[in-house]
Amino acid sequence: MSSMRDVELLRRRSAGFLSHAREALQRGEYDLACFFAEQALQLRLKALLLRMLGVLPRTHGLRELLGILSGALGEHGRRDLAREVSGLARDFRSQLRILEEAYVGSRYLAREYAPEDASESVDLVGRVCRLIDRVEEEVFRD
């Protein structure tokens, strides 16, 4: 199905970006904290989707990746997890939008982020990564 080596590489990169996001937040580098947090979540979602689907989604949008994950979970008969992922995407829509903007904005826009934006972004990414860990435990325990 998927190359576990590729999945593990994406997971390691995700963990590295999350570590950098936390360090940037501590240093008051809020723009970088948001960018690194977005990269951490994007890569972590892609690692899980590669493992589940055997293909790497060709999108960078976090909300779209969460939608793909929710759909895949529904197809695997994990409707409770699918609803949880959908609910999280809905409940944190504005924060996910900030993260998505940080992905583009770091390259093309002169946008600055407030300390609260960065802190909430890093916290949200940690929360979603913990949910992804639970998804993996439940889907791949068999």
Give helix % range. Answer: over 70%
Query: How many helices does DSSP assign?
Result: 6
Distance between the termini: 16 Å
Q: What is the average of the pLDDT values?
A: 94
The helix/strand series, from N terminus to C terminus, equals: HHHHHH
The Rg value, from CA coordinates, equals 15 Å
- Superfamily (CATH H level) name: Nucleotidyltransferases  domain 2
Properties at a glance:
142 residues, 6 helices, 82% helix, Four Helix Bundle (Hemerythrin (Met), subunit A), mainly alpha
What does this structure look like?
The protein is an all-alpha fold and 142 residues long. The protein has one domain: Four Helix Bundle (Hemerythrin (Met), subunit A). The chain contains six helices and no strands. Helix 1 runs antiparallel to helix 6. The protein starts with a helix and ends with a helix.
Layout of SSEs?
Layout (H helix, E strand, L loop, with lengths): L3 H24 L2 H24 L8 H14 L3 H13 L1 H16 L6 H25 L3
Helix pairs in contact: 1-2, 1-6, 2-3, 2-5, 2-6, 3-4, 5-6
Short description:
With 142 residues, the protein is mainly α.
